[in-house]
Amino acid sequence: MDTQKYHALLRAIELGSFSAAAEELGYTPSGIRQMAEAVEREMGFPLLLRGRSGIRPTGACQVLLPRFHELIRAEKLLQLDAAELKGLSVGSVTIGAYSSVAINRLPRVLQQFHQDFPQISICLREGIHQELDTWLENREVDFCLYSGSADKSYDWFPLYQDPMLAVLPLSHPMAGCSSFPIEKIAEEPFIMPGNNGGGYDVVHLLEKNHIKPKIEFSTIENFSALAMIECGLGISIMNEGITLGRLNQVVMTPLEPPQHITIGIEIPSLKTGSPATRKMISYLRKMLTALKAKQRP
């Protein structure tokens, strides 16, 4: 199986030009162009729109992109399975994750995994919920660590519950209270952590509790949201994992009634995952579940 030309096509699309793909992959621009044209001939229709600003996929190509990723993945799985049958532990794993998980939960697992399997390379991609959904759908990552997608055909392995907290300025009248009534969210100026729908978990929580917040600010970056809260511009809701290790002068208090999100592993199919992917998931299920159990009072 030779998927070289499909890989060249995908990198050219992702980077927006034949030249950039050629520089990364070690080819000439004309070589990348010829491989892309070879795929077009195989498909029987154009896959790329070419212009002065670079290249981009046609509508038909966008439909086929997940299949191209699957084809490359299938070749990698074949190579990895063959290597495992020879008694080798080799390969690579690409993980998509919330930044809060990547910062506060993954490092110790990766440390142990790397000690046991130093020849397996790990690529970590951090993103918001919608990005992780897309990467998983397009098979750009092997699996994701987040609160899960709506695709019930995927395999889902819950790991732990992450409490949702009200985040308040120090000057807030309820800063000293043991909890924050969730219905009061609607009465406060609200800072949405994740603009353009990026705050998926917060939006889902608000909708589930029939609360319409007065959104006065929104930002894709939680650091920015915390800084705005610190300055008294409003309040917000965040999962506990986001707030760990942050030094902002804010108050974080449980919601009443208590709310949480479930962090877990989502993979299109554990059965068809590479040997390296299955090993990594085994480590995550064992270590992250045990880690959360130790933190319970």
Describe what this molecule looks like in 3D.
- The chain has 297 residues and is α/β, with parallel strands linked by helices.
- Among the domains are: 88 residues, Orthogonal Bundle (Arc Repressor Mutant, subunit A), CATH 1.10.10.10; 99 residues, D-Maltodextrin-Binding Protein, domain 2, CATH 3.40.190.10.
- Helices cover 44% and strands 25% of the residues.
- The chain contains eleven helices and twelve strands.
- Strands 3, 4, 5, 6, 7, 10, 11 and 12 form an eight-stranded mixed sheet that branches. Strands 1-2 form a two-stranded antiparallel ribbon. A two-stranded parallel sheet has the order 8-9.
- Strand 1 and strand 2 form a beta hairpin.
- Helix 1 packs across helix 2 and helix 1 crosses helix 3.
- The radius of gyration is 22 Å and the shape is globular.
- It starts with a helix and ends with a helix.
- The C terminus is likely disordered.
What distinguishing features does this structure have?
single chain, 297 residues, alpha/beta, Arc Repressor Mutant, subunit A, eight-stranded mixed sheet, two-stranded antiparallel ribbon, transcription regulation, LysR family transcriptional regulator, WH_DNA-bd_sf, DNA-binding transcription factor activity, transcription
